[in-house]
Amino acid sequence: MKLAIIGYGKMGKMIEQIANAQGHTVSAIVDPFAKDALSKVQISKTIADLNFDSIDAAIEFTQPDTAVQNMITLAERKIPTVTGTTGWHERMGEVSKAVEKEKSALLWASNFSIGVNMFYRIAWYAAELANNFDEYDAGGFEAHHNKKMDSPSGTAKVLAEGVLSRLDRKKKIVWETMNRKPQVDELHFPSLRMGSVPGTHSLFFDCPADTIEITHTARSREGFATGAVLAAKWLTAKERHGIFTIDEMLKDIFRD
What we know:
It contains 7 helices and 13 strands.
């Protein structure tokens, strides 16, 4: 697979390492601030500078304010794109319109880590079980490094929204700090930004008798990068058109 990496920060560098280790070719890197790369390719400042004939797929990890235009431009060039950027989803309509118009393909996820996606399913199943026992209250917590732009994280949103849809007694997620008692129907899920934390997400079920805690802690960005490269491979394995999520990819993998 010939890949373009859009955004050459810590995630972009890890994606390059994983892609090279798996035998893929990094054909291009787009980042106005990048200087050196492991791969012997020219680093472009903008997507418009790319040689699209040498690209099978693009993996995009940038910032919310640039991701939307990146995805639209790649769709117009019919480049299958994987994006792990979060914080742009309120503009999904614009991106979807471009992808559908050009019959291109986009796969997005708030988190590409296979471990995190297993964690989602374990946590959601726990919520289904807790739904049968009213004495268990539920809440959560997430922590990330102090360079992360969005809060709550996209991973926290997916996790908490999945719990909310499975736990009938919870009707609303409260993300901010509370200076009051929570209402019975509120799911409290605050955030912390500190140091170099790659990402920690916890879900709790608590009653007077005991506490159940389910936690995923990322040791590094390797799991996210590996999942993103796997997503690009899945997206290009056959002709696909439209918007996809990591759920479609995982369903294929679990089925196989």
